[in-house]
């Protein structure tokens, strides 16, 4: 496969997201401009100007009409994807670390950063999916995370039932999305190693967390039980679950950006690592970035993935047939038994 | 201003004259359908050098039907926004480039390339360690002398017998031979194992192994060590590349030395690279002669 390099950003990428059909890629970086790209040929569709600080997060609603971004200028903004119009700006006392739409696109969640005098908050807004409608200023829910350490990542579970948060100390917590009550908390990652990413499976019944403790873990949404563990040899920044037909997960990471100059590209381990989801075994790597991978995202149709790196590039990879044909011996046997 | 006055209205400069010249006019492309379903297109055009070129193309048209999500199709038609507004469809070279082809095949029991590359070297080291026989100087068992269980009760074997038994105790080993038992310092060149003659060549036993070193001459003066390394690394593991450079100009002097880990690689490289054209010169490669 020949990767497509998207070089519209001037600084390190922080997050990349696919639209639901996988045709558009949205990327945000520490320069102030979110970009949208066609995944098929890497053509840039456009950029959304308005933010005045580094951006940490982006998400697109399931119909690809609304785009949410948040960053270090202490705002979370809503854009119309098609026209680039800014629809709404929510202001906060601290920066927005993560935002995510619920499954139906009717709710938007934002995580504010914990800083001196300010606690981590998870705020939820009801969203009107019509781009011409007035969006509300009033949050429908605010979770003030008092007794737990700083929230780094968060997301809505299936049917918008729970909010799952990942924390600075490696713990994962489950909250009721209606009342904001803390339901469950597990310490799945090593103590003091922050959870750097949380991504959902296609149906949001389980999710994967990546952590600085060099592991990624598959959790059950309902019970927060750790289902699988993927061990890497480098701190991880991101992990993604490949949707069917393949049963893989992709991990991305690398030496922390501040240590990078002291190591060569090879030693920095700036590779996307593919693991088999069930067998927890590494099956391959894709090289290319000159810096740590800050985010990996898989297209919802499973045919392509992209990674955003500290080097300022987004690399889009369309998988070749061997990727889809690969099967473990037991899988092949099972297929034969079932008479495929 | 004068030029403007001279030009009569309605008539432009002769250089802008756009009257079609029949001799240089370009006929429209001719398309003929062939029997086997292909089409032949004959186009006449003027190429970059200003020459008339006739191009004949035979093409076959096939219709590939592809289903696409109507939403995706609609989004593809969207007018571009922001900095891309008004730009034509298709990727722009300033924001989108194609990377090098990556071969990615999932495999069971994947090991990263880094480990694979490292492995043979480690194996070699391990082999060497295996070959090196460890022999205790006290009891002749296969452990280090310092680990010998009889260390405290017995004197080293060689010293007891009064004659040096081992051959391969290097410098920094025991100071047997001279000064037996005494703690007196013995200069390196007088110790057992060193050749008796004083004023030996510098380097002594650490002399470079010239057996696997190639002398490369007729090197371009703009060559870099990395270029040479690239050329020679194809034939085996290169341990050292030395390119003689002029101290003042920093340019290469025209000769270099390349050492291989293995003499077989060196001789193969000697054969293959000799006569290789590099930087408009032809390399001459031969085995380095021992320095005298």
Automatic annotation (TrEMBL), chain A:
Example GO molecular function: translation initiation factor activity
User: Where mainly located?
Assistant: cytoplasm
**PROSITE patterns, A to Z:** WD_REPEATS_1, WD_REPEATS_2, WD_REPEATS_REGION
Q: Which N-terminal stretch is annotated as signal sequence?
A: none
What highest taxon heads this organism's lineage?
A: Eukaryota
Q: Which GO terms describe its biological process?
A: formation of cytoplasmic translation initiation complex
Physiological role? Component of the eukaryotic translation initiation factor 3 (eIF-3) complex, which is involved in protein synthesis of a specialized repertoire of mRNAs and, together with other initiation factors, stimulates binding of mRNA and methionyl-tRNAi to the 40S ribosome. The eIF-3 complex specifically targets and initiates translation of a subset of mRNAs involved in cell proliferation.
State the oligomer form and interacting partners: Component of the eukaryotic translation initiation factor 3 (eIF-3) complex.
Its protein name is: Eukaryotic translation initiation factor 3 subunit I
Species annotation: Oleoguttula mirabilis
Q: Which gene encodes it?
A: TIF34
TrEMBL record, chain B:
Biased composition of type Polar residues is found at 1-10
The subcellular localization recorded is: Cytoplasm
User: What's an example GO BP annotation here?
Assistant: formation of cytoplasmic translation initiation complex
Q: Which residues form the RRM domain?
A: 212-290
Where are the annotated segments for Disordered? 1-37
| Family matches, as InterPro entries | eIF3_g, eIF3g_N, eIF3G_RRM, Nucleotide-bd_a/b_plait_sf, RBD_domain_sf, RRM_dom
Quaternary organization: Component of the eukaryotic translation initiation factor 3 (eIF-3) complex.
Function, in words: RNA-binding component of the eukaryotic translation initiation factor 3 (eIF-3) complex, which is involved in protein synthesis of a specialized repertoire of mRNAs and, together with other initiation factors, stimulates binding of mRNA and methionyl-tRNAi to the 40S ribosome. The eIF-3 complex specifically targets and initiates translation of a subset of mRNAs involved in cell proliferation. This subunit can bind 18S rRNA.
Q: What is this protein called?
A: Eukaryotic translation initiation factor 3 subunit G
Provide the gene name from the record. TIF35
